[in-house]
Design brief:
Blueprint lengths: L12 E12 L20 E11 L3 E10 L18 E12 L2 E8 L9 E4 L6 E4 L5 E8 L2
Antiparallel strand pairs: 1-2, 2-3, 3-4, 4-5, 5-8, 6-7
């Protein structure tokens, strides 16, 4: 365990966690007429990173970045339609934690990115329907663990 005060000589900081991940998914059909085609709705690349900082004993602040690569539309098992665009999102959260209680406020999609995490293809009509995600938004909440 590393002493964080060695790098950040601020006594109010209790902890610092750096978070990172990367997923590569090569998910394809293995039989039938769509053999070797990508399974729709599954991005090949996903990544994330950020930090969580604890301070004044009871508070946490996190800033998290998430990246999702392009993916074929739901129902497009033949991979015939142009895939959905890749997108990234930046979220922040401030939380007060004491014993089993947590009260938090979050700011999601800080950069107000416009993206559609879900794209659905209709083989009947040949049309694609985009389901847009919300722009910048806030959430507040409370949890009690028992």
């Amino acid at each position: 365990r590393m002493d964080i005060h060695r790098f950040f000589p601020m006594e109010f900081i209790d902890s610092l966690e750096l978070i990172t991940n990367y997923n590569f998914q090569d998910v394809r059909f293995v039989k039938g007429s769509n053999n070797k085609k990508f399974v729709p709705g599954v991005p090949r690349h996903q990544a994330g990173g950020g930090f969580l900082i604890g301070f004044f004993k009871y508070f946490d602040f996190s800033l998290l970045y998430r990246y999702y690569g392009a993916q074929f539309a739901i129902n497009d098992v033949g991979n015939t339609v142009t895939p959905n665009k890749h997108f990234s999102v930046l979220d922040a959260k401030l939380a007060f934690k004491h014993n089993n209680l947590e009260i938090y406020a979050g700011l999601n999609n800080i950069l107000n990115e416009y993206y559609s995490p879900y794209l659905v293809y209709s083989s009947f009509s040949g049309n694609s329907a985009y389901f847009p995600a919300p722009g910048r938004n806030f959430d507040v909440g409370m949890s009690l663990k028992f």
